[in-house]
Amino acid sequence: YLNGNPFVDWDGKLECLSPDFIYEDDVLFNENKSKIISFRNKNIELYAIPDSVISIGDGAFYSCRSLSSIVIPDSVTSIEQATFANCPSLSHIVIPNSVTSIEKGAFSRCSSLSHIVLPDSVTCIGDSAFNDCRSLSNIVIPNNVTSIEKGTFSGCSSLSSIFIPDSVTSIGDSAFSNCRSLSSISIPDSVTSIGD
Asked: How far apart are CA 154 and CA 90, in angstroms?
């Protein structure tokens, strides 16, 4: 059993002899390929996640500096904590309608990510999910999201447009801090809590 990506920032040769995991093409999966644990090909620019994958694990693609485009199949239901964090070349990603949660720091420091469409299936966006996505220019929060968590869009210095739906009831600390290009925000009357 592995919790998260134990090989973050390690580029040595991995050999996996355990029958509980599958290691192929520099990608470590669980035994039935339903979860990506560690994506280790640091030179690839485009990757299509296999249809067997349901979950992308914590930090699975962390610091994949060359990765610019990723295809997520509609079998995936969650994007875990820091999954794509610190992928500075990632500029294109489509999140399928099957995804219900984007966890803490999932896209943090993806400095080339300029546009992302969040499907209405998403109900949860974790703390700092898009923190320091300096190229992100606009985003629409899906209608089923009830809270914008702490630091969700902090440091998104190019963010100039955001739509907050009536489903949102709370906005966390520093959710929009250092969003210098954001000239206005409309807080819907559904919001009852801001900050702490």
From this structure: 18
